[in-house]
Amino acid sequence: MAPLPASLQRIRDVEPFSTCTDAELAFIADHTWDHRAAPGDVLTQEGRLGREWIVIVEGTAVVRVDGLEVARLGPGDAIGEMALLDHGTRTATVVAATELDTLVSSAAEFAQILAAVPSVARSLLVSLARRLRDTNDLLTPGPVVAT
């Protein structure tokens, strides 16, 4: 068996693509493009319509809601899937904190990837569920302690 080309191994090395077959990785590579962002570049803007899906391959990004930092993202983290899934607006502004190496797909390519590669869809569902739980934890008061 021939070794996986470096371009496809690079994709396999990040979530949500780590369990993909070679054929699925080739499909993803055909439906994404590489994008580099410099520190300070805005990847998504809160309140704007979403038109692309971004997966961080290398680097760190800051997530801000109403101007407040709520999270940091790194390799394997996806950006923009919520707006593409529900055709809504971006829920946060995401800014490159370091140089970023990303994979990007259009809304149409994102839909094709989800349809053709179910493991990516499952990975995104797990990620969204985790983010929802984290948000609930922030919004739910801790146990009440009687004094």
How many angstroms does the end-to-end distance come to? 68 Å
How large, in whole angstroms, is the Cα Rg?
Answer: 17 Å
Multimeric organization: single chain
Shape designation: globular
Secondary-structure element pattern, one letter each: HHEEEEEEHEEHH
Overall helicity:
25-40%
Which class of secondary structure composition applies to the elements?
alpha+beta
Beta strand count: 8
Please report which band the strand proportion falls in: under 5%, 5-15%, 15-25%, 25-35%, 35-45% or over 45%: 25-35%
Biggest sheet descriptor: 4 strands, antiparallel
| Mean pLDDT across all amino acids | 91
Low-confidence stretches: none
Q: In DSSP terms, counting alpha (H) and pi (I) runs of 4 or more, how many helices?
A: 5
- Placed side by side, the strands forming the largest sheet appear as 1-8-3-6
Structural commentary:
By secondary structure, the chain is α+β, with helices and mostly antiparallel strands. It contains five helices and eight strands, in the order H-H-E-E-E-E-E-E-H-E-E-H-H. It has a four-stranded antiparallel sheet. Strand 4 and strand 5 form a beta hairpin. The longest helix has 22 residues, at 118-139. The protein is globular and about 70 Å long.
Can you give keywords for this protein?
alpha+beta, 147 residues, 4-stranded antiparallel beta sheet, 8 strands
